[in-house]
Amino acid sequence: MKRYGIERQTLWVTLAPVLVMAFLLDSYFITTRFADMDRTLIERSRLLARQLASSCEYPVFSGNAILLKQNVDTVLSFQDVASIRIFDDKPSLILEAGIKNTQPVNYSKTTFVPLFQNEDILRLYEPIVATQINLDSLTTSLKPENQLGSVVVEISKASLNKKKEKIFILSFLTTLLIFGITILVAVRAAKGISNPILQMYRSICKIGRGELEEVTYPASGVYELHELSEGINEMRKQLLRDREMLESRITEATVVLREKKDEVAQVNLEKKKLNDDLAIALTELQAIMEANPDILYVFNTKSELIQWNSNFEKFFGLPAIKLLHRHLSDFVYKDDRAAAENCIQEIFANGSATVELQFARYDGALVPFLCNGVVLKNAQGEVTGYTGTGRDISERKAAAQRIQHMAHFDMLTDLPNRSLLSDRLQQAISTCKRERSRLAVMFLDLDMFKFINDKHGHEIGDFLLREVAIRIRSCLRETDTAARIGGDEFIVLLPSIDTEQTALMIAEKIRNAIDLPFLISGKNLTISTSIGIAIYPDHGSEERVLLKNADTAMYQAKQKGRNAITFFSS
């Protein structure tokens, strides 16, 4: 490895930061200055292009070529303006002025970008937009965006580049001057430092060999070197003192080591007692866990299972060796894992939490559990994990689902009732308003149903209503809704139709299906239906109006002789 003297290294240490700093400052100054000059040119040119586009509005709009030429010549008189091109809204070139040998451009619609520049030229595109004053009388003859044409102005960057070149040369010469002055100062400073340091180095080598006799150093004009020589003398004296203290400290350390050994033995005895107490507590805890009818679990801070009761083991059907240190996510259904993670965060934050999760049973069935969790802490108050219980709530949820179903579906036909129909109809109306589409509402009433019900009994009548509901559903699309609103009255909702013919086609399909004979308890029964249709938004834009008009259309169908389909007509 090549080595250099302290004088040369001091020279390099002094020169390198100055040179780097000078280069960085020079680069920063040039970059900032050039950026300001470019930004000033762009802002001035953009303002000039906008003023030209504004002044060309009326000449382009009226076709006044003389006034347009005057405006263009005025702008050409400004410094650095190389050329100007005026286009109409096609775009087609109307006027071109300035230097003819600028960079050739194929002026198609795709080349009109707001700003383009290279080393020699700055090109700006500005649309000529009609103002409200010019649109008072001819608003209908213009395009929606009110653009009459466009202006393309090219600015020469020759003068700007010359200014940049002068600034660069001046900055470079300044840097060279600073660097030369720095070299002279650094050489003088390096010599004043190197000689005293070499003398101190020889003294330190003697101290390293154990020669601790007092040494006198030559005086130095550098304050730090004087302090360094005083420090070397103080170090020598301290080494003498440390040599005397070392043996006494070794003796003291030996005594302390014997005392620590006795303390370790006492700690081991206390640890054994704590382990025995812990084993007893764990046995009692396991007995409590087994007495719990729910599943009970204990997880560490990493959500790894460390303890559980037999109900937990039976539910998942896994032996203890496969349960230990399994992660919580292995037991929770994948769609509920995010909720489980949020519950764990709440336990650590608030001390406890409750969440409903689905666990996968040993046979693969998903069972809902209401899980309670409580944070666990040690004697020092540090969180060690969490524990909790899980209660099977599948029967309770099934009962709630049955109640929910009864609240929205007809008990006889299992069709949606009036409440569910109202909700779906309101949603369909909102969708149609948003998408500007159409829907249809059909009101169905069975003809002569009361006669069959009175003649054959209510049991036959109920069976007939269920069969009618089945036939209606078989005629509908997946998105359609059939509802029973009472007695022998049904409502059919078509949430999306292209034309009235679509509604008529489905209604005719329902009418033909109900018109076929019904075999009930060995009896052939025939019945027909009258159907009234209301279309959104032609026959109403609200739920109440559509249902009322469909009901009116149904009565009009009955007046025509029953077994008919009628659209609402006021």
Summarize it.
The chain is α+β, with helices and mostly antiparallel strands and 570 residues long. It contains 14 helices and 17 strands. The strands form 4 sheets. The protein has a 5-stranded antiparallel sheet. A 5-stranded antiparallel sheet has the order 7-6-10-9-8, with helices on both faces. Strands 12-13-11-16-17 form a 5-stranded mixed sheet, sandwiched between helices.
Helix amount, in percent? 40-55%
Distinct helical segment count: 14
Q: Please mark out the parts with pLDDT under 50 across 5 or more consecutive residues, or reply none.
A: 133-144
Would you count the extended β strands for me?
A: 17
- In CATH terms, the superfamily of the largest domain is Reverse transcriptase/Diguanylate cyclase domain
- Terminal residue distance: 107 Å
What is the CATH topology of the largest domain? Alpha-Beta Plaits
Q: Major β-sheet, in short?
A: 5 strands, antiparallel
| Secondary-structure content class | alpha+beta
Shape: flat
